[in-house]
Amino acid sequence: MNYDYSYEYGNIYDPGSINNVSEAIAAVFLAIYLIVLTVILIFALVSYIFHSVGLYTIGKRMGKQYPWLAFIPFARDYFQGELAGEITLKNKKIKNPGIWNLVLPIAGSVLSGIFMVFVLLVGSIGMIVGGAGGVGVMLTLILLMYIFSIILLIAVNVVRCVLLVLIDKQIFERLTTDNMSLVHSVASRFVPLYEAFCFFVMRDKEFREGKEPELT
Fold it and tell me: What is the pTM of this model?
């Protein structure tokens, strides 16, 4: 009798199988990323439309000459500040909040960009001229300048956040009580879509007595 045995061993470390698993995982992560990105874009679009429609309607009711600025990026920031009008802080006044609301984020971005370019330039020169001994000093200087630029950018954002609270409060005061206008203004800075829906919901409310705009 002839017993012929044949054994075949599969390679559990088959590169083809590993590649298939990697591709499947990559496809899942890509799908999740696309879903999250789509949701973010939808929320951003809804927020922009509701915010713009609310500002446009309020501006039109206040007799503003160019209410359509509410739909234009950057110009909308200026228009929102102009709806608030002059802001009084004890003995000080902010006469053109729209201009400040437009300039502050641009100034922050420009200053941050200038500092980053300066950091890269100083680092490159230091590494070329200073040699091995000056590398540590240059890296320390670069780190300090980078931290300073971050602090400056944060400070600009904090100032603009406070300015937006004052702007929104002054607009909402025309349409709701003083206390609620402050609540809405602060919540608008921390809750997504809150500001947009507030302007949209309040756009047709009657102005409070004594807070009516002076139509021209």
Answer: 0.75
